[in-house]
Amino acid sequence: MAAPVRSVLPVVLLGCGGVGRHLLRHILSCRPLHANQGVAIRVLGVADSSSLLVADDLHSNGFDDALLADLCAAKSAGSPLSSLLSRGQCQLFNNPEARRKVIDTASVLGKTTGLVLVDCSATYDTVGMLKDAVDRGCCVVLANKKPLTCAYEDFEKLVSNFRRIRFESTVGAGLPVIASVTRIIASGDPVSRIVGSLSGTLGYVMSELEDGKRFSEVVKTAKSLGYTEPDPRDDLSGMDVARKALILARLLGQRISMENINVESLYPSEFGPDAMSTKDFLESGLVQLDKSIEERVKAASLKGNVLRYVCKIESTGCQVGLEELPKNSALGRCYESAPLVIQGAGAGNDTTAAGVLADILDLQDLFHKTA
Ligand SMILES: NC(=O)C1=CN([C@@H]2O[C@H](COP(=O)(O)OP(=O)(O)OC[C@H]3O[C@@H](n4cnc5c(N)ncnc54)[C@H](OP(=O)(O)O)[C@@H]3O)[C@@H](O)[C@H]2O)C=CC1
Ligand SMILES: N[C@@H](CC=O)C(=O)O
């Protein structure tokens, strides 16, 4: 028998791509588990790049599970959110009204039931909505790294009520990286240095290259597995790792910005987003990088080494780039006698969505059952 409902968490989701849809599916499949724990997640709204589908009555149970399942199927098939309108129980707002509706929803629920605004988009555009939600006393959960890596003042605002924000999935997807660092900081232990291979994509790519596979093929496979950013150049340029480095550095108290991070890109600027589309890069640009990457892998291998894309955060500075490392050296073991080592799947829609779901549930004590 299900436990009495103790906490109800109303959720509005920004972004229903790979991660967002996995989150919705996890919410559905975990219903019995959550019911046993006395927790209920109510999805009141889902937004994509052009619109917001929101429940008619914000104090209702939100979308029913059948509608959520259909929403995932519709977005997977490339249909717009408007295709769900015929189901009733919801309204559609297109941008810019959609953004205003998110903020109105935060205003209403911030004063009543509370709200968790979950950002599974991959854009800077959400930062205004997130800050407004924080101002209205709402909780925020992020898989999207961009809001935490723009202006320092935005970061400061978002983390101003640290009990009401979770962003575990921004670094290491479902792995407990942020939680571990936060706990160490809270216990007064100084963190002198963080060293890691923080890109799931580049970890996968570098391992596959060791087996003699072609760079261009491996990057495309990483994309199809859901490891890469929507534009894989975000990973290959080192920018996605740099964002993780910036989040960790800011967490350690460094008041720094992206310009303070040394970033090594794996492709030259003529292959960048200003020069060609993602499609052209994947179809014709990527293959032109195969030879130079193969030479770097071979040069490392002749010395018994492998390539790893390494992120280093120290009080003296942050850098991210390719390094040659001994094949049998676990990152970290090289640097200290007994470092904290966190190892596992650091990317993938499934594990990221699981991390986001765990973050939402971690907020449950801030929410109580409503009548
Ligand atoms: N995959 C992984 O392993 C990990 C991913 N992440 C992060 O998760 C996030 C999502 O990644 P992923 O799901 O792969 O990305 P996708 O590109 O698959 O999905 C992005 C979603 O965001 C929507 N969107 C775009 N702009 C807005 C906006 N202004 N407001 C609301 N929604 C918007 C898109 O709309 P539309 O459908 O209309 O295009 C789409 O639904 C990224 O920030 C990524 O860095 C973090 C850790 C690991
Ligand atoms: N593209 C990222 C996804 C997680 O942040 C990665 O490869 O690590």
From TrEMBL:
Keyword DNA-binding: no
Domain of life: Eukaryota
Reactions the enzyme catalyzes: L-homoserine + NADP(+) = L-aspartate 4-semialdehyde + NADPH + H(+)
MF terms (GO), sorted A to Z: homoserine dehydrogenase activity
Biological processes annotated in GO: methionine biosynthetic process; threonine biosynthetic process
Residue positions binding NADPH: K145
UniProt-listed SUPFAM superfamilies: Glyceraldehyde-3-phosphate dehydrogenase-like, C-terminal domain, NAD(P)-binding Rossmann-fold domains
Domain Homoserine dehydrogenase catalytic: 176-361
Protein name: Homoserine dehydrogenase
Species name: Oryza barthii
